[in-house]
Amino acid sequence: MSKGTKVPGYMQGKGSRNPRGIIGDREIRYKCSLQNTILDVLRGRPGWQEVPGQNNVQQNVQTNAKQQGTTPQSSKSGFQSIPPITRNSDGDWDFYWCDREWLAQNYDTMFLYEHQKILHFRNHYELTRKNLMVKNLKRLKKQTEREQGKAEGLSFEFFPTTYELPSEYHIFVEEFKKNPGIIWIMKPAARAQGRGIFLFRRLKDITDWKKGEYQPLSDPNREVPETYVVQRYIENPYLIGGRKFDVRVYVLVVSYNPLKVWLYRSGFARFSNTRFSLDSIEDTYVHLTNVAVQKNAPDYDPDKGCKWSTQQLRKYLAAKHGVEAVKKAFKGIDNIIIKSLQSVQKIIINDKHCFEMYGYDVLFDSDLKPWLIEINASPSLTASGKEDYDLKFGLLNDLLNVLDLENRLTGKEKRIGGWDLLWEDGPILADDGNMECTPNGTTASIPNSFLGCHNDRKRQLRELYTAAQSIKKS
């Protein structure tokens, strides 16, 4: 290797590291709690170096701060910059892709330096727990109707009638009796991958589930019943090839105050393995599209899988229903994203060090109306095949480009790889006409949203960085 060859940070020896401090012309040190695509992305990123071993971040930072005679401020009071220091411990990281459990255990007691970035906001669950998501959406809907009128409240009609159990069981029973014969779906509020979900038509079908849950808790050792949500099941899903599907949409939030939201162009539709029918509501392979469920189906083909890219889906729908109908449907997804994030904007503990990548699950009904099914704080990053791996590798690489720890961008970009800036304290409008989904190359008053549209992300990134460097030099 020649002397002038640039060596990725994760290949460099310890002797090549610059003194620690605010990120400048040095490698970026990262930690990652997952062993899947994100770790591949981080290890392959030039100038990034993995922090070895498991370490106590709070202890290391406190020790170093004490040695420097400084007192880092708590995250609750809005972190303040402190003088750069040399830190040689394993707690010396710039970027941490942590899991939710680690954050819950450490966030309230740890200190972060000016340059550090970490996955998840402290109380992300306000949006990603099924019961809290609906509670916050209902509250914002009522506020909107009160301040702007009933007509504006109709923009929130994108989530099914939902009740929390056991706390709202009696209210649910009243609603159930008003609509005899319809199908309801029960979901654990805090579980994922389709676990614990079932459908029912009769109240007696959940008698065993609720038995004893309303008796006084005289036994102090008795466990509190698990929280569920019960939703009206969407009985008329849009079908392709007779099969039900939902769409996974990736959303990046880098700030809640002001609200700054990025939407990734690529995603995928997840299909059920079995043709749809309301005659067999107990068959999870018919009604649940989760890959974790479908891969256990007897006739599941792991090579073929049950996925379409969002680009494939958009082309199919446009060919069948026309471009305008599809634009309207996908605009509905934009509305779902912004309204749901606004519902927790004043609740989420905003922190400039935190970011969140959500996985939205959206279902189209037979009228092409999008419905919000759930929002995931930790969407799966394990690839089910080569195409899935390529999608997630690009998604995560572009996410790091948006965060721009290397400080190579201007901060005014609207498009970075596959990510389009959807909202920054207000809607963002497109400003160029080279997108495949934009008819005749016109972008006047068109939202900067291109879900399911094609773009050459590598070429776009090359042009973006070249332009950014020119601006910085000038």
Please describe what this structure looks like.
The chain is of the alpha+beta class and 474 residues long. It is built from 14 helices and 17 strands. It has helices spanning 37-44, 57-68, 100-106, 125-128, 130-148, 150-153, 169-178, 207-210, 284-287, 291-294, 310-321, 323-342, 386-403, 457-473, and strands at residues 28-32, 48-50, 95-97, 117-119, 162-165, 184-188, 198-200, 228-232, 239-240, 243-256, 259-264, 268-271, 307-309, 354-364, 370-376, 415-416, 419-424. The strands form two sheets. Strands 1, 2, 3, 4, 9, 10, 11, 12, 13, 14, 15, 16 and 17 form a 13-stranded mixed β-sheet that branches. Strand 16 (415-416) and strand 17 (419-424) form a beta hairpin. Helix 11 (310-321) packs across helix 12. It is globular and about 70 Å long. Mean pLDDT is 82; it is low at 1-20, 55-90 and 212-218.
In short:
With 474 residues, the protein is α+β, with helices and mostly antiparallel strands. It is 30% helix and 18% strand.
Question: What ranges have pLDDT less than 50 throughout 5 or more consecutive residues?
Answer: 1-20, 55-90, 212-218
Q: Round the Cα radius of gyration to an integer and report it.
A: 24 Å
* Mean pLDDT across every amino acid position: 82
Strand content: 15-25%
Which outline best applies?
globular
Describe the biggest sheet? 13 strands, mixed
Main structural class = alpha+beta
Cα-to-Cα separation, first versus last residue: 33 Å
The number of strands is 17
Per DSSP, the total helix count is 14
Q: In terms of quaternary structure, what is this?
A: single chain
Helix content percent band: 25-40%
